[in-house]
């Protein structure tokens, strides 16, 4: 198995563990998708993907419809995606993805988390290069051979295809998202969920005590409502 498989295995059960947090993130994704491409999922591939993800976290349909309607209101604030970079204790690189309607608030909050947990906030580009920006799709495993599918999707950008207990996962570079989404839809293959992740190129092994120091910072950052994802180079 490749790096994507190991990365996914390490993060399993951690991401979106709190249902309320998941709904908040989906709501923000809906607003950004609607503001970018309109409220019609058929004409807005990004919104289609968000709706698929809402089903994956069991978000009620009425919540999704309400969020789409709210997003079309001119008075609804738009969210801007902002990336923060820095180092946790023991030389672990940290990458923080946020969606915020108040950048000053988010900058101040994220900086305070680094400072309180003996980390260091970095400048733009200071650690981003240590991660590969990838996209992923989860599809049902029934009737599909992962190895055969991987060979068929290589021409569309797929780099790694593997099966776990929840279905088949397809990983590809960030820029291949639209191409693979379109191909899966053309093949009438159901997309259970999709998204983007940053996979560390190299990880660092720490002692249990050192890991606790890093996890303290990560947990603090993840509690912030503006934070969508936190990535790091600590071996899990």
UniProtKB/TrEMBL annotation:
Gene3D superfamilies linked to this entry: 1.10.10.200, 3.30.70.980
Domain TACO1/YebC-like N-terminal intervals: 4-73
TACO1/YebC-like second and third domain ranges (all copies): 79-234
First-listed, main subcellular location of the protein, grouped into a coarse class: cytoplasm
Keywords (A to Z) from UniProt: Cytoplasm, DNA-binding, Transcription, Transcription regulation
GO BP terms in the entry: regulation of DNA-templated transcription
GO molecular function terms attached to this record: DNA binding
Tagged with keyword Transcription regulation: yes
Highest taxon, organism lineage: Bacteria
Localization (cell): Cytoplasm
Cytoplasm in keyword set: yes
Pfam families, sorted: TACO1_YebC_N, Transcrip_reg
Family membership: Belongs to the TACO1 family.
Cross-referenced PANTHER family: TRANSCRIPTIONAL REGULATORY PROTEIN YEBC-RELATED (PTHR12532:SF6), TRANSLATIONAL ACTIVATOR OF CYTOCHROME C OXIDASE 1 (PTHR12532)
Name of the protein: Probable transcriptional regulatory protein FNW17_05925
Source organism (scientific name): Flavobacterium franklandianum
């Amino acid at each position: 198995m490749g790096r994507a498989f190991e990365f996914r295995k390490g993060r399993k059960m951690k991401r979106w563990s709190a249902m309320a947090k998941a709904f908040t993130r989906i709501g923000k994704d809906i607003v950004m998708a609607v503001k970018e491409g309109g409220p019609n999922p058929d004409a807005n591939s990004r919104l289609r993907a968000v709706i698929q993800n809402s089903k994956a976290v069991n978000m009620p349909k009425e919540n999704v419809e309400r969020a789409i309607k709210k997003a079309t209101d001119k008075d609804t604030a738009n969210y801007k995606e902002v990336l923060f970079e820095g180092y946790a204790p023991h030389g672990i690189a940290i990458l923080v993805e946020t969606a915020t309607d108040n950048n000053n608030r988010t900058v101040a909050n994220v900086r305070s988390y680094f400072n309180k947990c003996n980390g260091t906030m970095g400048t733009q580009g200071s650690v981003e290069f240590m991660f590969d920006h990838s996209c992923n799709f989860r599809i049902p495993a029934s009737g599909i051979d992962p190895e055969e599918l991987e060979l068929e999707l290589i021409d569309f950008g797929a780099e790694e295809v593997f099966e776990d207990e929840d279905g088949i996962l397809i990983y590809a570079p960030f820029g291949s998202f639209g191409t693979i989404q379109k191909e899966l839809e053309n093949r009438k293959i159901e997309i259970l969920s999709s998204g983007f992740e940053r996979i560390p190129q190299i990880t660092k092994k720490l002692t249990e005590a050192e890991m606790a120091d890093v996890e303290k910072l990560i947990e603090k950052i993840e509690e912030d409502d503006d934070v969508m994802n936190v990535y790091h180079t600590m071996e899990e």
